[in-house]
Amino acid sequence: VDFPSAAFFDELMVKYPKAKIVLSVRSSESWYKSVSETIWNPMGMEHYWACWISPSARLFQRMCKGWRPRVLGNPEPSILDKEAITRAFEAWNAKVKATVPAERLLVFEAKDGWEPLCKFLGKPEPATPYPHVND
To answer: pLDDT tens digit string along 81-90?
Structure first.
């Protein structure tokens, strides 16, 4: 699962003890570039002041404020501090790897395509190519 529920993976593991966990990874450099150009973009919904006009955008901003300390640490580093943010990203991935039992965890890179994901989930590979968006 993606955010915000991924920030609660440890609680979800307890609630669903047979669930498998997929940790999507990428280089910290490409992750930082991606979040900086999307959700942390000055015009992105997470930080753009005008979002306070929209009730749903306000909820989105509150949700982001709730998960960031769980993932990035508390006190949370500035999103402009690339080194601190990428260290937090790497620490998060290490925490997930250290917490989830190996038999329940797939460390997955999108570039690997369907095969490892489908094998881990016990599902057949789709005939369609694996999507490559935001590489």
So the answer is: 899 989 999 9
